Every structure is written in C-alpha cells, then in structure tokens.
Amino acid sequence: MTSPHPTTSTNTAMTGGSAAAPAVEPGYVFNNDTGEAANQLHHLAAVLDPHTTAVLDHAGVGPGWQCLDVGAGAGSIAGWLADRVGATGHVTATDVKPHHIGVRDNLTVLAHDIRTDEIHHRYDLIHARLLLMHLPQRHEVLARLAAALAPGGTLVVSDWDCADADLVLHSPDPAWTSAFDAFNTTLLDLAGAAGADLAWARHAHSAMRTAGLADVHTDVEQRSWRGGTALCLLHHSNSLQLHAPLRAAGLTDDQLDLLRDGLTRPDRAVLSYRMFTTVGYRH
Fold first, then answer.
1. Parallel, antiparallel, or unpaired for β 66-70 and 90-95?
2. Cα-based torsion angle of the residue sequence 7, 138, 196, 36 in order, rounded to the nearest 10 degrees
3. Beta-bridge mates of residue 270
4. Which of 8, 10, 226, 277 has the CA that lies 20 to 30 A from 119?
5. Distance, CA of 276 to CA of 161 (rounded, Å)
C-alpha cells in the first residue's frame, strides 16, 4: 500500500452562490451553501450508502489503504472508509465546498476542484459518486483519477442514469403524478443546462477501459421507495433547494405544494434513477 499522507498546503476553494437565494451553478445544479443542503446530503446518503458500501466492501478495502473520496458531500463514505482503513491507513475527502465533512485522525478534508487542481499522491482506492455526470470535463477528470491510482489500485465511479423519466410506480392521485413528472423533467432540464450528462453513467465502463484500467465491471442498482422514505424525502429536499429555479422554469407554487405533500405520503411509490457503479483496476 502507498504510505504518504496528503498535504493541506495546496487547497483551493470555489466561490458559491448566496445562501439566501439558491443559484444553479455551472457544473452542479445544487448549491451546498444553502440551508437545505445538509438535509439533501443526509437523504442522499440514506439512499445511496448501502449500495456504495457493498461495492467498496467487495473491492476489499481494509487496514492500511490510502483512499481518496472525490466530491465527498457530507463525508458519509469517507467516514466509512476511515473506519475500514484504520490507524495504519488514511482517507482524503475532497469537495469544492467541504464544510459538511467532519475531520478525523485518519481523515483529511480538502477544498479541491478536481477539474483544475492537481492530485499529488497515489491512492489504493479512489471513489467518486454523483460527480462525473455533472462535469463537462468528465473524460479528462476520469483520466486524471485513473492516473492517480497506485499500482493495483481501484477506481470506483457511481452515477445515476436518468434516461427513464417514468418513475411513478403507484399514486392514487393523477394530479400528483403529473406534478411529480413535471418536477422531475424540469429538474433534469436544469441539471442538463448546468452541464450534466444525464446518460454518462452508461459510458463510464468504456471510458475506464479507454483510460487504461483493467478488469472493468459495472453494477446497476434500482429500487422502489414509498412516500416518506429517503428517496422521496430527497426529492422533497431538492424541490426546496431549487424552488427559485423550478419556479423560473415554469412550475407553479400549487404544483410544488402538491408534489411536496405527496412525497410524504406512504400511499405513493416511485423508482429511483438507475445507479451505475463502475469499477476498474490499475495494473
């Protein structure tokens, strides 16, 4: 395993929008400076962490590993990795706005823009979730991540495939179904306008092979969620954080109120987007 701990001397941070007025930022539709961001990140972790940790467990993460978690959000996966690598390992968690991530003895938190900032060390594991789909420079970033692996190192990339817009599985209220569909379509339009590639997840496998990684494989995860459970609460949170852009794009207050009410009701069920997790190894 590689041994040097990362340095904090070259941190860079991006400026963001005002907490009082959510803004759609180039490269990422959400703003982690808003008051709703902590709720959003909490619900994201509840939806995605079981799948992610199962993949990382299968990858064999263990004591002594040096790990990089890029776009770490609230740091739930970085914390899980820190538990796994123990006192002899180390985890670096990066984000352009890393203030939601807690520091630990074997966990370093960096403000870092993966699009432009260098990676100064080599890692046994690099993890990036819901990151590359939002970056127009995704192919260049993936190549940079692959190059930052130590010999034998593992790259794990997870992104949602948002091609299927028909996500409502059950609803007793056709008006709520229409409100959800309008919200989902508008949300994805906003993400696309900010630079997201909503079909990128399907291409990560080929991109990893092009980057020279070996034994590439992809797992796909999708399931249903009732109203009031984590995915529906995530949509609820997203609708609050993006209230102004959603209204500007044409959704009405009545639609958003109806949407939010139904997302808390257990008589509704929606599908998650399909999560493509692609794993490759550096020989």
1. parallel
2. -10
3. 168, 225
4. 277
5. 7
Q: What is the pLDDT of residue 24?
A: 45
Cα 239 to its chain centre, rounded Å, is 17
Report the SS3 class of residue 228. coil
**What six digits make up the tokens of 224?**
């249903």
pTM score of the predicted model: 0.89
Q: Which residue segments constitute the domains of the chain, with CATH numbers given?
A: 37-281 (3.40.50.150)
* Cβ–Cβ < 8 Å for 236, 256: no
At residue 10, the pLDDT reads 31
Sign of CA dihedral 102, 105, 111, 115: negative
Across the beta sheet with 269-271, the strand order is: 168-170, 269-271, 224-226
Contact 239, 256 (CB under 8 A): yes
Q: Is 107 helix (H, G, I), strand (E, B) or coil?
A: strand
Per-10-residue mean pLDDT, the chain, length 283: 35 31 54 87 97 98 98 96 98 94 95 94 98 95 97 98 94 98 97 94 97 98 98 98 96 98 98 98 95
pLDDT of residue 59: 96
Phi, psi of 185 (to 5 degrees): -60, -45
